[in-house]
Amino acid sequence: MTLDLPPMLVEEAVRAALAEDLGRAGDVTTQATIPASAQARAAIVARESGIVAGLPVARAAFALLDRQIVFEAQARDGARVESGTRIALVSGSARAILAAERVALNFLGRLSGVATLTARYVGAVAGASARICDTRKTTPLLRALEKYAVRCGGGVNHRFGLDDAVLIKDNHVAVAGGVVPALRAAKANVGHLVKIEIEVDTLEQLREVLDEGADAVLLDNMTLDDLRSAVALIDGRIICEASGGVTLSSVAEIAKTGVDLISVGALTHSAPVLDVGLDIEIN
């Protein structure tokens, strides 16, 4: 899987974070204590084991304060590291390094945490055909970065926004007047390249979907028995996704039912931050 982040998205997010942290007067502590000419070398170190994600974002935090700073990655995004591993080396203006430190570490820790939790879910379903995917339950304005971190952890991305594809949820079905009216309306109003997925809560609704036709179906909060029955009914005709209350303790059994995808909101809304730190190296 290709791991890439559009530089424009990275710079936009990092600029906003730096502006938030530096405020109106900049880093007054560093300016008061560190000479403008001072140089420093530092290591970014993992304080616990996990999956690295966000190195391009951390690099940008330093570069936006001083383009002369040298950022040397010692790992790659998507790699597993152990506690004590050097993730990157940073050298150059001491003032810039200290001023960018927290923004760089916040992004790196947050994204590595998402990647690490994703990898745990992916590992839990190893041997099954189901893939682990994310949702739109992301931190506002950081969706592209967090979904990138999911890919670093071995997961796959669901839609990025409301304009990606049609996903008819239970509230759409309620307002539209049922599964069939909702599907027919969607087919009549979107282009031929737009995929249509619909959420169902019961096997009866699933039968309606299969009769009417869709590209994918989301099996929401179904029991394991119902998921197995749903997979048998679908029989490979459309993509099936299990969702709703998925945990690390339940995901393996869900995967064994034969679903194609398991979407997990917790990947982005509940991932613990991976502990990373920056240590100045004193000669």
Which descriptors apply to this entry?
TIM Barrel, Aldehyde Oxidoreductase, domain 3, elongated, 19% strand, 283 residues, alpha/beta
Secondary structure: elements and pairs:
Layout: H1 7-22, H2 28-33, E1 39-46, E2 50-51, H3 55-63, E3 70-73, E4 80-81, E5 86-93, H4 94-124, E6 131-133, H5 143-152, E7 166-168, H6 170-176, H7 179-189, E8 196-200, H8 203-212, E9 216-220, H9 224-234, E10 239-243, H10 251-255, E11 261-263, H11 266-269, E12 276-280
Parallel strand pairs: 6-11, 7-8, 8-9, 9-10, 10-11
Antiparallel strand pairs: 1-5, 1-12, 2-4, 3-5
Helix pairs in contact: 1-3, 1-4, 3-4, 4-5, 6-7, 7-8, 8-9
> Which architecture name of the largest domain does CATH use?
Alpha-Beta Barrel
Kindly identify the CATH topology of the largest domain: TIM Barrel
Write down the overall geometry. Answer: elongated
CATH superfamily of the largest domain: Aldolase class I
Beta-strand percentage range: 15-25%
Helix percentage range: 40-55%
Description:
It is a single chain. The chain is of the alpha/beta class and 283 residues long. It has two domains: 123 residues, Quinolinate phosphoribosyl transferase, N-terminal domain (Aldehyde Oxidoreductase, domain 3), CATH 3.90.1170.20; 147 residues, Aldolase class I (TIM Barrel), CATH 3.20.20.70. The protein contains eleven helices and twelve strands. The strands form three sheets. Strands 6-11-10-9-8-7 form a six-stranded parallel beta sheet. Helix 1 packs across helix 3. The radius of gyration is 23 Å and the shape is elongated.
